[in-house]
Amino acid sequence: MSTLFAVDRKDLRRMHWLDWPAEPLAEGQARFRIDRFALTSNNVTYGAFGDAMRYWDFFPTGDATTGCIPVWGFADVVECALLA
Predict the structure, then answer these.
(1) Phi–psi pair at 41, nearest 5 degrees
(2) For residues 75 and 61, what is the distance between their CA atoms, to the nearest angstrom?
(3) Rounded to an integer, what distance in angstroms lies between the CA atom of residue 70 and that of residue 10?
């Protein structure tokens, strides 16, 4: 199981954590454990322009009322599917 940070697309001050099923990795993909991440004014800009710039399409949550905004952070690889 993974965790997803979802924000309300109409009110970015509202957020919640979602349990997200960890799907099998395809060849060339990797899974990371996030150590730290930060939200900055730049991240808020992604959310504010989510519809106009189609940022919400990059990381869908499966719920049209929420979105997942990109963040900067540090992580460790915990699983990978090597290329053949």
Answers:
(1) -60, -30
(2) 21
(3) 17
Question: Rounded to whole angstroms, what are the CA distances from 16 to 7, 8, 26, 77?
Answer: 7, 9, 28, 24
| Nearby residues of 27 by Cβ (< 8 Å), 6 or more positions away | 81, 82, 83, 84
pLDDT digits (tens, 9 = 90+) for 5-54: 899 999 999 999 988 888 899 999 999 999 999 988 888 888 898 889 88
Q: Classify the phi-psi angles of 45: left when phi > 0, otherwise alpha if psi is within -120 to 50, otherwise beta.
A: alpha
Helix (H) or strand (E) holding 43: helix 41-48
**Confidence band for 73, pLDDT divided at 50, 70 and 90:** very high
pTM: 0.72
Strand partners, 63: none
